[in-house]
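This part of the workshop introduces the protein records we will be handling. An example says more than a description, so a record of this kind follows.
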Amino acid sequence: MSDNSYKKVVAKNRRASFDYSIEENIEAGIMLTGSELKSIREGKVSLADSHAAEGSGELYLYNCHIAEYEKANRFNHAPLRPRKLLLRKKEMQKIIGKIKLKGYTLIALSLYFNHKNKVKVELGLARGKKQYDKRQSIKEDDWKREQGRILRDKK
C-alpha cells in the first residue's frame, strides 16, 4: 500500500447510494476552523442530508453537522454553518455547469483524512432515484445476501 492511497474515513453518508445513483466522484478540500477540526478528529460529524451547492461563484457544503468542541472557550463554531469547498477554478466551473443541468445534485459521500493529514470531502455528482429504482436496489441486495448464504451453506 503506497502512502498516497491512505484514507482515514471519519464519516460516511450511507444513505447516499440508496437515494441517489452516483455518476461521478470528486475529491475536494474543505475550509475549517480549529474547533471544527478538533471535533472531526474526535469523530463527531454527520453527513446525513449534506449536499454542496453554488453560492457567489463558489461551492459550499450545506447541512454537514460538526458538533461543537467542548473544550473550546470563546471561539466555538456553529454546527451547521456552510463550509467552503476548495477546488481548482476550472474544476469548480465544470461541476457548477453539471449541477445546473436538470436533476443533478452534488452530495457528500464521505469525510476523511488523507496521507498529509488534510481533511477531504468525497462528493458525488448524483441523480435522484425514483421509488421503483429503490425497490430494485433492495431486491438486488437481498439476492446477493441469499447467494452468499447458499454458497456458505454448501461448504
Notes: The mean pLDDT is 84. The longest helix spans residues 131-154. The domain at 7-129 is CATH 2.40.280.10 (Small Protein B; Chain: A;). The longest strand covers residues 20-30.
